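[Q] Does anyone have a clean structure-token version of this?
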Amino acid sequence: MIADAWARLLPAKTVTQTVRPGRSSLVDAIADEALAAFQAHGTYRRMRLLTSAHGRHVRVDGRPVVHFASSNYLDLANDPGVVEAASTAARSHGCAAAGSRLICGNSDLHEDLESALATFLGVEAALVFSTGYMANVGVLSTLVRPGDIVLSDALNHASIVDGCRLARADVRVFPHGNVEALADLLRIAGDAAARDKHRVLLALDGVYSMDGDLAPLPAMTRLARRYGAIVLLDDAHGCGTLGVCGRGAAELLGAEDGVDVYVGTLGKALGSFGAFVAGSARLRDLLVNAARTFLFTCALSPPQVAAARAALHIVEAEPRRRERLQANATRLRARLASHGIVTAPSTTQIVPVIVGDNEATMQLTERLLERGYFAQGIRHPSVPHGTARLRITLMATHESSEIDDLANAVAEELPRVTQSSAGERSVHRGTL
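[A] Here you go.
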């Protein structure tokens, strides 16, 4: 274990450390009230402990399992070439950027990665951010102002929602994937924006992270162009996994020309950490000067940047990885369907199995862990109330036998947990 290795290397502690007294009771009272509500609603969470590198086989809470909960879609997080690139960068540039990009944290590694990302996506420029959350919050709060209008899909990622809030924009939410509802909003927003000289921005995910479906990008980007709206596409789960060249959902659907601002991640298919915003050179210049989530944070560390650059090269050079990934996803959906399990609307490597009940969902997760499969249960607020689910994510390196065995295990355990949960609710109702 890594912790055991460090214990052998470090000298024994000679000073006994104690918890100093403080006013924690005030904070604890707040925590107790909030945590009690989480527990009452079945949404209390804990972190699982992984003690291995991310790959298709990992150790979770001390148990060896096949990994079906990761966003390491192309299995690059522990690829030898990616690991070596990170190691080389650590030796040549150190383990930290030691400051923000505008003070002392900008390196040749950062600029090389950004140039490569821009070339990969066929745009003028890209800018790396510390996280996907910070990328969305930064670009939204820079491009829209109070009074501007943001049209947002109901299932957009929380970082888009929070970016709109921080920008204090007029946010208008339309039903998920509903082109007709968007058209109505664009007509109204376009008239208001023209009258009051405000901007209109359409924010979309490329792949929706809990359902695994695609935004109807061709129709939506055409509408946005007709009404003069800016299009921001967060394609965290499509970047590297979809399209002939791996450029994501917009490439797959032939809608790249309709996207003004592209947000992608370095921490999923690219197997590293961080995110980026890509678009025009003027957009990059604006973000460098105005995006608070870029200005006021340390730059990504050199090993992370170098790892992402090496992974991007693999994405471009080895299309077979994403082809295998999508073939694996198709196989899992088909195997589950053969057991009568619906995974719609998924068409990607994210495959949901809707359970509904929070407790039954987590029971299913635990039962699968006992059988050697790690697929995480997802509850509110990550998904709407009453739609708790097993969220299965595929990797390019999963074997067909592993996929088939997982589908069989889900088919066997799902009825057991749903019947058990229904029985417990019936007993509980009878005691009221």
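[Q] Thanks! Anything notable?
[A] The first helix runs from residue 2 to 9.
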